[in-house]
UniProtKB/TrEMBL annotation:
Transmembrane intervals: 93-113, 125-143, 158-178, 228-248, 268-287, 294-314, 320-342, 354-376, 388-409
Topology class, membrane: Multi-pass membrane protein
Comp. bias intervals (Polar residues): 433-442
Cell compartment(s), UniProt: Membrane
Organism: Penicillium subrubescens
InterPro entries from the UniProt entry: MFS, MFS_trans_sf
Name of protein: Transporter SEO1
Length: 451
């Protein structure tokens, strides 16, 4: 959770800095904010590609911390930016070194947890991400009110320094607390008996442990699997159904009210992600224990749709706009549900699971390199009529496609139960029962909650 916390605090820096003096200090006057977000996304998309190969080759307990240390360094140097071009270059590098983190953490979760428990574990991790967003606002509020002008630096510049001071030590800590995978475990925290216990319980759930090399045959097998293509489209709709969380609309709206100081504005900006903590825990636990993935996604995005509908209408009482912005983080509450779903459907092969996570996340995220430039132009904020309408349409498509995918998965499971052949991968694809309840107590050793 702490890892996700520092990660997302850094994600949100630019939005908070933009309304805290960065715009004026660097002379921004057009769509620079959305362009900075796009540069970050391009770096993250391109940076992910090598990890389809590296996830099964290198110990995850070394790979992710190494990338995070470099990521923290580029977080730091953003404080010295004096132009849009310089800051854009830093944002690209931040995205590049951040690339492995999100799919990497979900690859780790998929290496240890069964399909009926992975959403809860991922949800606890994702709470750290929403907590990081909340903290970014509070840190910026403190920096604006107490550090503005100290040593000749504006408050928004101190924000980058503070986040780097948090990031680098946490990244180093990762060498000692990340468990790795059962095939390449972190022996600093896991004993052989812990790893063997984990392997045994996963094998009982038809989960393949041995990590195989990535070959061209792997690409062919993944490409022939209908689930890969279906879940790819689900993820594309998901990424575009939640870009309202990073568009800065809430902060721009607060600033446009012209009744709050910079520090107070950032304090208020923390409310929406704070509610996101509740949304995330509710949706992820409900997915594992009651609803299953498709209905958990539905609950999450029905709440998002209510808020988006109000934002599209816009000419409503101010209290209604407050309510609408408070629903924003329900859009990402089901993230761990979706990536847990992908993990469980590809659990028969670690290398295919790694490749699927990377390709699905890369392609889906790459669409957000250009969609915000079209529908969330900074100069059109905070109303963003085109943007909120676009996100609303994607949320509806996400819900619909999730149920279609679940229907065909359940039909495939019934066919297997009758002894029929299963389409998809030509490897031993023993698809998980996504709607199953708790099966056994989750124990991978006393260190399992550290992920």
């Amino acid at each position: 959770m702490s890892w996700g916390h520092e990660r997302t605090a850094n994600w949100e820096i630019t939005d908070n800095a933009y309304v805290s003096g960065l715009k004026e200090d660097l002379g921004f006057h057009g769509n620079e904010l959305v362009k900075l977000q796009t540069m970050y996304t391009i770096g993250a998309v391109l940076g992910q590609l090598p990890f389809a190969y590296l996830f099964t080759k290198l110990p995850m307990s070394w790979l992710i911390p190494f990338m995070d240390v470099a990521w923290g360094i580029f977080t730091l140097v953003q404080y010295r930016a004096t132009s849009f071009a310089e800051l854009a270059a830093y944002r690209f590098m931040v995205g590049w070194f951040e690339a492995a983190f999100f799919p990497g953490m979900h690859y780790i979760f998929g290496s240890w947890y069964r399909s009926d428990e992975i959403a809860r574990r991922g949800g606890c991790f994702y709470v750290g991400l929403t907590l990081g967003t909340l903290t970014a606002s509070l840190i910026q509020a403190g920096a604006s009110s107490r550090l503005d002008g100290v040593n000749g630096l504006a408050g928004w510049r101190w924000m980058y320094i503070i986040c780097a001071i948090i990031t680098i030590p946490v990244a180093i800590l990762g060498y000692f607390i990340l468990p790795g995978t059962p095939d390449k475990p972190n022996k600093l925290i896991l004993k052989d008996k812990d790893v063997q216990l984990a392997k045994t319980r996963l094998e009982r759930a038809s989960h393949t442990i041995k990590e195989e090399p990535l070959t061209w045959r792997t690409f062919v097998k993944v490409g022939r699997n209908w689930k890969f293509w279906a879940l790819l489209w689900v993820d594309i709709f998901f990424w575009n159904a939640c870009i309202n969380t990073s568009a800065g609309g809430y902060q721009l709206w607060l600033k446009g009210l012209k009744r709050f100081s910079t520090s107070r504005l950032n304090e208020l900006a923390a409310i929406s992600p704070a509610l996101g903590i509740f949304y995330t825990l509710f949706v992820c636990f409900a997915s594992d224990l009651v609803l299953g993935p498709a209905w958990a996604i539905t609950v999450s995005h029905l709440w998002n749709i209510i808020g988006l509908t109000i934002l599209v209408i816009w000419k409503v009482p101010e209290s209604a706009l407050w309510f609408a912005f408070m629903t924003t983080y329900s859009a990402v509450a089901m993230s761990s549900v979706l990536y847990g779903w992908i993990n469980s459907q590809m659990r028969y092969s670690p290398v295919e699971r790694s490749l699927t996570l990377i390709i699905v996340n890369t392609v889906a995220q790459s669409t957000t390199c250009w969609t915000p430039l079209l529908v969330f132009k900074t100069v059109e904020g905070p109303r963003f009529t085109k943007g909120y309408s676009f996100v609303l349409a994607n949320a509806i498509c996400l819900i619909t496609l999730s149920h279609v995918v679940q229907f065909f998965i359940k039909r495939e499971e019934r066919t297997k139960a009758r002894g029929g052949s299963v389409s998809g991968s030509d490897s031993a694809d023993d698809s998980s029962n996504l709607e199953s309840g708790p099966q056994e107590t989750n124990v991978i050793g006393k260190h399992d909650q550290k992920t």
